[in-house]
Amino acid sequence: MGIYRYPKPQATEITPKEVWQNRRRFMSAGAMVAGGLAWPFASSVAHASALAALPSTPNPEFMSVEKITERVQATTYNNFYEFGMDKSDPERYAGQMKVSPWSVQVEGEVGKPGTYAIEDLLALEPMQERIYRLRCVEGWSMVIPWIGYPLSALLSKVEPTGNAKYVEFITDMQPEVMPGLKSSVIDWPYREGLRMDEAMHPLTLLTFGMYGEVLPNQNGAPVRIVVPWKYGFKSAKSIVTIRLTEKQPTSSWMQSAPREYGFYSNVNPTVPHPRWSQATERRIGEGGLFAPRRKTLMFNGYEEQVASMYSGMDLAKFY
Ligand SMILES: Nc1nc2c(c(=O)[nH]1)N[C@H]1C(S)=C(S)[C@@H](COP(=O)(O)O)O[C@H]1N2
Ligand SMILES: [Mo]
């Protein structure tokens, strides 16, 4: 269990009591089934934790020698535009998001469409811990210990038809608690997509937790996707629908700024965003204002694993 390695949460990042009590009630059933461990696990953990522990087994293939970003940074510096444009808005407002009950509808080009309760998704496959870099298109990055299992496990279960070429992710809308939905920067709900081979790639993680615990709301509770070789915006949070399609879906960002955001959005230091370079990045939590920026790596450092999916493609054209 990786959970002892993480720094103790600061008092300031502890969620109001009513919120975590709700979360615990909801998580206890699912986490027990998923982890096969006794529930009071969280109370035996060395640090006072506001969220339910999510037991997992570290996957040695996806560990990292890089320094893990402090949990306080990863949970207070976020993009989740449903809650506002500022980096601090998700942490401030997402506590109000209702994450229980939750279900995910799997539909479209599948032999077995259906609605999965979050408890069933949690129990579908053993939970793995994987340390992934997340690189935002804005030019910053973090290193996060995620908990989940490959999306391919779920996709195989629903039996994609021969027409299934793409997967679309649609995320939740809760207008009462999401002030960002009033903004027309994005055509809501937030939608993202992957090509079928990308969705089935072993790196693509259906993600339920981070830092040994269930996902904090601001990081996309109760379930999100993490696609580490693509810019962070491909990693849709708080997913309610997974739709398999024959045609390439139009993501929210492609729709709002087609010149700036394409369908693929692979991390690529050689293809600048029309308004800024993608050659370097700032690692969140590393030094001050004058800390040197890091060189951005091709496919965010996952080139060896994913480059073959794009052989023969002009990555400046398919940005
Ligand atoms: N539903 C939803 N998912 C989203 C976003 C969003 O605004 N709404 N922002 C994306 C962006 S731009 C990034 S960089 C990552 C940030 O994930 P993190 O806050 O967990 O680091 O979430 C992505 N997923
Ligand atoms: Mo981002």
UniProtKB/TrEMBL annotation:
Pfam families for this protein: Oxidored_molyb
Cross-referenced InterPro entries: MsrP, OxRdtase_Mopterin-bd_dom, OxRdtase_Mopterin-bd_sf, TAT_signal
Record SUPFAM superfamilies: Oxidoreductase molybdopterin-binding domain
Cofactor note (record): Binds 1 Mo-molybdopterin (Mo-MPT) cofactor per subunit.
Domain annotation Oxidoreductase molybdopterin-binding: ranges: 98-253
Top-rank EC class of the record's enzyme: oxidoreductase
Signal peptide residues on this chain, from the entry's feature table: none
PROSITE patterns, per the entry: TAT (PS51318)
Binding site for Mo-molybdopterin: 78, 81-82, 136, 171, 219, 224, 235-237
E.C. code: 1.8.5.-
Keyword Zinc-finger recorded: no
Keyword line: Metal-binding, Molybdenum, Oxidoreductase, Signal
Entry comment on modification after translation: Predicted to be exported by the Tat system. The position of the signal peptide cleavage has not been experimentally proven.
Gene3D superfamilies, sorted: Oxidoreductase, molybdopterin-binding domain
Cofactor(s) demanded: Mo-molybdopterin
Protein transport in keyword set: no
One GO MF term attached to the UniProt entry: oxidoreductase activity
Domain of life: Bacteria
Record's catalysed reaction(s): L-methionyl-[protein] + a quinone + H2O = L-methionyl-(R)-S-oxide-[protein] + a quinol; L-methionyl-[protein] + a quinone + H2O = L-methionyl-(S)-S-oxide-[protein] + a quinol
Function, in words: Part of the MsrPQ system that repairs oxidized periplasmic proteins containing methionine sulfoxide residues (Met-O), using respiratory chain electrons. Thus protects these proteins from oxidative-stress damage caused by reactive species of oxygen and chlorine generated by the host defense mechanisms. MsrPQ is essential for the maintenance of envelope integrity under bleach stress, rescuing a wide series of structurally unrelated periplasmic proteins from methionine oxidation.
Record-stated family: Belongs to the MsrP family.
HAMAP family recorded: MsrP
PANTHER family noted in UniProt: PROTEIN-METHIONINE-SULFOXIDE REDUCTASE, PROTEIN-METHIONINE-SULFOXIDE REDUCTASE CATALYTIC SUBUNIT MSRP
Oligomeric form and interacting partners: Heterodimer of a catalytic subunit (MsrP) and a heme-binding subunit (MsrQ).
Official protein name in the record: Protein-methionine-sulfoxide reductase catalytic subunit MsrP
Organism expressing this protein natively: Orrella daihaiensis
Origin organism lineage: Bacteria, Pseudomonadati, Pseudomonadota, Betaproteobacteria, Burkholderiales
